[in-house]
Design goal:
CATH architecture of the largest domain: 3-Layer(aba) Sandwich
Helix content: 40-55%
Oligomer: single chain
CATH superfamily of the largest domain: HUPs
Number of strands: 32
Shape: globular
Structural class: alpha+beta
Distance between the termini: 64 Å
CATH topology of the largest domain: Rossmann fold
Number of helices: 36
RNA sequence: GCCCGGGUGGCGGAAUUGGCAGACGCACGGGACUUAAAAUCCCGGGGCCGCAAGGCCGUGCGGGUUCGAUUCCCGCCCCGGGCACCA
């Protein structure tokens, strides 16, 4: 029988849909919620998606067989800039663009045969989804979690929009378009995530062992908690106080100057009327023009000016100069620092540059430190010196004591700072959730009444990519009556950051059609917490932190009904949405740039096309055009994939075979491996793979190539291997249908027993991998091993035929989570009436695992010299005797004294000889 | 600079508690089938020496603990990622 994946796949996808086997409703069974990060509908499924969803599908299908009520939903993160950019470029409405992309991608997902409950599909751009964004926002507004503030924000001049700090990369570029970000002051809506900083940090403890360690660390760093003290420095001649934050109150006596951020409100105020006023003004102005990124990365040399005034040290009463400098940032701590040059490297460098005093107040235990001899700051803890009554204390103790003293004097207090900033959710864009508030000249900010939700996006906003929000240019949207006073008022014309949409979508899946609340408390109580979440590491902070924040907020709003029992109760109580997280690695592909190809061939852009052809094929042709000129003609740059160059008509006509094949040897040797991306043209289109090899082979390969969390390099040969394996299994089963369908009983031969043992060993191994370790690559390897044993097995007895039948049957079942279509087909062909999808995962027969004889390696001085076979119940004495009888062992110990005999039952023998 | 993760054949990777290093697959070599090729099937393989039996070496490098180390400890090198004038 011929193996035709296409037919098989269509057949079973249809059957599964007809029998509604992937639909889930709350029932008496234990639930299992497996979730993959929903995709942005960019147009096509890419390999990263395939990998993500294949991992999820293996888990979902296995858990279903293991008896769980599995919730496995899919939806679309459908708001966002690309749709709007497409509209600007080609005039197509963002809704149309998005919905047609969704339709296309859904088709692709269906062809891959993922076991989703499509009844629960959601798209965040639909009013019945985003109305709940608005509802949640209003609840947050009520609770004071959402607030309005004028704040310096990151403005991307290209996207014409405000970006969150998280959306600006470390080079100060927009995360989407790469344009350098500017700073602007804008009225915006913020969410007070900082109120939850402590809880978000503390609950990371609960996630340990369930989430990958790097993700936990990244979140921890992102929240960035520092414990220290706030200290006040008075400036008597101006009647002002400078508040600073420090993590080292123990170094307070070493303060020799104070520094304000240039943007600090006191900077200009203090300098007023001093001889330094003009200089300070010029400095502040200069800093305003300096890129924020450069300021905050430390790549600029330290620079500052004296403000002309002195502050008073809170404990010693000394007069110390006040400076303003570029290295102090307004948006961390209080925007001012106390400088302790002896014990802080930045302060040290600044002090040396401007000739400010260095005063040592901490020494390493048992050592002396001289300020004048220091070449860098001593930043470790130690023992206090020159610190009045605190001299002699250790740093830790001194921190406490000095803080207490400040509190007693009313000049300071204990303080905790976080790096985490509140989340700015306002976007001056069209394709997002309208913010449901009305600005009334009389009443101020008025929330849209709940019964008027959703505030729908108008269809006809002009999308030009310029100016502020497109919604501001739709009068019938903007102009409304104030719900409070009935007077003329205006709607807010901003839309929400799309991270808002994705911060709670996993809850909506629990009740996707609910009309009176974002989700039904009983349903969320049944399905939540997500048992297994799977997605890319790129969401380690943003999406995952926001989702944790939202879940905690929704819990505090009283939207959950706490479950009576269950292992996840603790996660539920703490508002943690995802119990286990798996971050899958990237799918990479080898490619070669024009630059590297030319280098490998020993050519330059000045070489002729003729020389290129000769180097590639050995053919002599007369083509005098230079490669550089050809590249300019086709807009190819040296960083582009060389495939572009080879595919130009001028080159293509001289080479035989596909351009990919011509380049392959050069890619192997001189190419590089990077993430599949459009710009590098190193993309493998999943749908083409499904077309050519089938969904099962594509999925099997992606899962077999590497463990899920590791990166892997896509190789065409690999998917061919997966295809061959499936075909061999299919062929073997269909060629042996008679014995696989029949009833067999009787005695087993030795080989028959071994086959049974292998079958149950594999079952045990695969079961463990699927439920605990998620190392799908080794699970598949084990299945392949079993298959290799099956094909070399020659049944001798009727009982043997039974063992063979059992082995193949179990193999089909084990194959199911990875290659479900092929497995279903074989299940049916081997005479099973019920869907394999509905078949329970088989039990391991512990009896079959037992061995009569065990193979034990025998080492002499740690080197393996022989392998002996001993009866399973052999005593240490028996084993010793068998080992010593072994000729190879005898040879190795000949003429030597056996000092020690080590036996680890069932594992190893080691003879120590001298 | 700080914090994670990693380094094993030609390649992807395996070794679950310190116990036979290299499972499984890919690529490769040899053979069978074929007029031939492809496909398929069988066999082979870490390196060095050897006709072979066998021996020696081998998990980034150097040391240590142990009967025994890819695994544990100390010191270093390299690669990938995150954070970073954060007070």
């Amino acid at each position: 029988m011929k193996f035709s994946p296409k037919e098989i796949e269509e057949k079973w996808q249809k059957r599964w849909e007809e029998e509604k086997v992937f639909e889930s409703k709350p029932d008496g069974r234990k639930k299992y919620y497996v979730l993959e990060m929903f995709p942005y509908p960019s147009g096509k499924i890419h390999m990263g998606h395939v990998r993500n969803y294949s991992i999820g599908d293996v888990i979902a299908r296995f858990k279903r067989m293991a008896g769980y009520n599995v919730l496995h939903p899919m939806g679309w993160d459908a708001f966002g800039l690309p749709a709007e950019n497409a509209a600007i470029k080609s005039g197509v409405h963002p809704r149309e663009w998005t919905l047609s992309n969704i339709a296309n991608m859904k088709e692709e997902l269906k062809k891959l045969g993922f076991s989703y409950d499509w009844n629960r599909e959601i798209a965040t751009c639909q009013p019945d989804y985003y109305r709940w964004n608005q509802w949640i926002f209003l609840k947050m507004l009520e609770k004071g979690i959402a607030y309005r503030s004028k704040a310096p924000v990151n403005w991307c001049p290209s996207c014409q929009t405000v970006l969150a700090n998280e959306q600006v990369d470390d080079e100060g570029r927009c995360w989407r378009c790469g344009t350098i970000v500017e700073t602007r002051e804008i009225d915006s809506w913020f969410l007070k995530i900082t109120d939850y900083a402590e809880e978000l940090l503390k609950d990371l403890e609960l996630l340990k062992g369930h989430w990958p360690e790097p993700v936990i660390t990244m979140q921890k760093n992102w929240i960035g908690k520092s414990v220290g003290a706030e200290v006040e420095f008075e400036v008597p001649e101006k009647g002002e106080k400078i508040r600073v934050f420090t993590t080292r109150p123990d170094t307070l006596f070493g303060v020799t100057y104070v520094v304000l951020a240039p943007e600090h409100p006191l900077t200009l105020k203090l300098a007023e009327g001093t001889p330094q006023e003009e200089e300070v003004k010029a400095f502040v102005e200069k800093m305003r023009r300096t890129e924020k990124r450069k300021r905050s990365t430390g790549e600029l040399p330290k620079e500052g000016v004296f403000t002309g005034v002195y502050a008073v040290h809170p404990l010693t009463g000394e007069r110390i100069p006040v400076y303003t400098a570029n290295f102090v940032l307004m948006d961390y701590g209080t925007g001012a620092v106390m400088s302790v040059p002896a014990h802080d490297q930045r302060d040290f460098e600044f002090a040396k540059k401007y000739g400010l005093p260095v005063k040592e107040v901490i020494t390493p235990e048992g050592e002396e430190l001289k300020a004048e001899e220091m070449e860098e700051a001593y930043t470790q803890p130690g023992v206090l010196v020159n610190s009045g009554k605190f001299t002699g204390l250790k740093s830790e103790k001194a921190k406490e004591e000095i803080t207490k003293e400040l509190e007693r004097l009313g000049k300071g207090r204990k303080s905790v700072q976080y790096r985490l900033r509140d989340w700015n959710i306002s976007r001056q864009r069209y394709w997002g959730t309208p913010i449901p508030v009305i600005h009334c000249p009389k009443c101020g900010i008025v929330p849209v009444p709940e019964e008027e939700l959703p505030v729908k996006l108008p269809e006809n906003a002009p999308l030009t990519g310029e100016g502020r929000s497109p919604l501001a240019r739709v009068p019938e949207f903007v102009n409304v009556k104030c719900p409070k006073c009935g007077g003329e008022a205006e709607r807010d014309t901003d839309t929400m950051d799309t991270f808002f949409d994705s911060s709670w979508y996993f809850l909506r899946y629990c009740s996707p059609k609910e009309e009176s609340l974002p989700f039904k408390p009983e349903e969320a109580s049944y399905y939540m917490v997500v048992d297994q979440y799977i997605g890319g590491i790129e969401h380690a902070v943003l999406h995952l932190l926001y989702s944790r924040f939202f879940t905690k907020v929704l819990r505090d709003l009283g939207l959950f009904k706490e479950p009576e029992d269950g292992h996840q109760r603790e996660f539920f109580k703490r508002g943690e949405p995802f119990q286990n997280l798996l971050t899958q690695g990237m799918v990479n592909k080898r490619w070669i740039s024009v630059k590297n190809l030319l280098k490998a061939l020993g050519l330059t852009e000045e070489s002729t096309v003729g020389e290129l052809i000769k180097a590639l094929t050995g053919k002599e042709v007369k083509e005098e055009e230079t490669i550089g000129s050809l590249m300019r003609k086709h807009h190819i740059t040296v960083g582009d994939n060389a495939i572009l160059l080879i595919s130009t008509e001028e080159v293509r006509k001289f080479i035989e075979g596909a351009p990919e094949e011509v380049l392959k040897p050069y890619e192997e040797k001189f190419g590089e491996v990077s993430k599949m991306s459009k710009s590098k043209l190193n993309i493998v289109n999943p749908s083409e793979m499904v077309e050519k090899y089938g969904a099962d082979a594509t999925r099997l390969y992606v899962l077999f190539a590497a463990p899920p969390e590791a990166e892997f390099e896509w190789k065409t040969e690999g998917i061919e291997g997966a295809y061959r394996f499936l075909r061999r299994v299919f062929q073997f089963a269909t060629e042996n249908l008679e014995s696989l369908k029949g009833e067999h009983s009787g005695e087993l031969s030795k080989e028959g027993k071994e086959l049974r043992r292998k079958t149950h060993q594999t079952l045990k191994k695969v079961g463990e991998e699927l439920s605990e370790r998620f190392k799908f690559n080794t699970a598949i390897a084990a299945i392949m091993e079993l298959f290799n044993q099956i094909t070399s097995f020659k049944p001798k007895t009727e009982g043997d035929r039974g063992a063979l039948k059992e082995a193949v049957e179990k193999l089909i079942v084990m194959l199911y989570p990875f290659a479900p279509h092929t497995a279903e087909e074989l299940w049916e062909l081997t005479g099973h009436g019920e869907l394999l999808t509905k078949t329970p995962w088989p039990e391991v027969d512990e009896e079959a695992l037992k061995k009569e004889e065990v193979e034990i390696p025998v080492q002499v001085n740690g080197k393996v010299r022989a392998v002996i076979s001993v009866p399973a119940g052999a005593t240490e004495e028996d084993v010793r005797e068998i080992a010593l009888r072994e000729p190879k062992v005898q040879k190795a110990v000949e003429g030597k004294e056996i000092v020690k005999f080590i036996y680890r039952p069932g594992r190893i023998v080691n003879l120590v000889v001298r």
